[in-house]
């Protein structure tokens, strides 16, 4: 269960305004830069979808969950704003992200044709993805070694809040499906995770390959660099494989792993940006 003493705290920070950035802002490495850039392109539209999917089921939820949904919404709105600003820097550095953005639009258009409960299941799966990536990013500071300071700060700030609200979509799902059998819940959520994982890996790889192509890195060199980064060093996808699999366990809950200590280690830099907790949903 979500810890009863957890507070989801939106932090209203702005990053990198009025500053230029290097094309390869992460340690001069086009592979590492492409990994984060390709991920960032998805966030503004994706997080709007997450908000809509969760808020569709906010009526009648317990008071505490209603407050958490409100705080989750505030956090995701600010995330979208900051990734729009970050993505403008990506395009200012000469990247054409139209293919990446079109992929996101096409997938979300398809998703919105499904029943709202399926959108909530997809959101729950993607929130688990973002939470385990956020955990890994905060757990090992080497991922952002050599990054431009404002970019690194933005990604750490986003990771803090993804961990903080990682239980909201799940708890909303549990309330929305409270009349389902445990077997039906497990079947739908695990099938959706498999679908989401297939699309996530395919389209993030496709996005990275497109950005690398624009850097003149193609074919074996591009695929080799991508696979080495994801699976070997630093190996972020390899490292999140086990927590990804935990999603399939009966009785799974995101807060079975209480990683608030990672938030505490990184949060002091954003203390002045904390927004008031929502008083009502």
From TrEMBL:
Top-rank lineage group of the source organism: Bacteria
Protein name as it appears in the record: Metal-dependent hydrolase
Organism: Sphingobium xenophagum
